[in-house]
Amino acid sequence: MHRTVRHAIRPNARIVVSPSQAPPAPHAPATLSGIFLVFLRIGLLSFGGGLSGWVFREVVVLRGWLTEDEFMSGLALSQILPGTNVTNLAIYVGQRLRGIGGSVVAFLGLLSGPFVAVIALASAYSVVSRWPYADVAMEGIAATAIGLLLTVALRGVRRASRSVAGMLALVATFIGVVCD
Q1: Pairing of strands 14-17, 3-6
Q2: Where exactly are the structural domains of the chain?
Q3: What is the pLDDT of residues 117-174, one digit of tens each?
Q4: Sign (positive/negative) of CA torsion 170, 172, 178, 180?
Q5: CA distances from 30 to 52, 63, 71, 92, 144 (A)
Q6: Left if phi > 0, otherwise alpha if psi is -120 to 50, otherwise beta: which for 7?
Q7: Which one, 77, 87, 130, 162, has the greatest CB density within 10 A?
Q8: Beta-carbon neighbour count of residue 119 at 10 Å?
């Protein structure tokens, strides 16, 4: 479905705009349940790093709840405060949107999904660990994780060895970790 847009400089000019290029529709205001559901989804579907990118996409790009400048200020603040960056960011976003209540629901939304998932996985593991050969499978998973870690480490060494400064930083880090 296309729509026609009048050009501001030449009012009689017609430009056909596809829905993906159309200006964004006005966004609904943030509700407590909306904030909770956004952060619940982020907590459930995200794993490892890059969560601040998810938060940016959900809060700035898709919903327009914050401007990019507001988000970046919150991201900078979340990185200098103690604690995990994404938790601090969730609390900041919630507070900016709905005050203390928003902070609480953003925090609970972000952490409740993974909390339930970990409890469920621990329960499943207690059942699966009794199966024959479960210990062998866990040893295979551990070996795979070690192999992946070594692959990343070797790529890091190869990349750091391109410059003297990088190699010095690599050696200093290695000594710092080994001598700890």
Answers
A1: antiparallel
A2: 32-128, 134-178
A3: 999 989 998 888 888 888 888 889 889 988 888 888 888 788 877 888 888 888 888 8
A4: negative
A5: 19, 8, 15, 14, 43
A6: beta
A7: 87
A8: 10
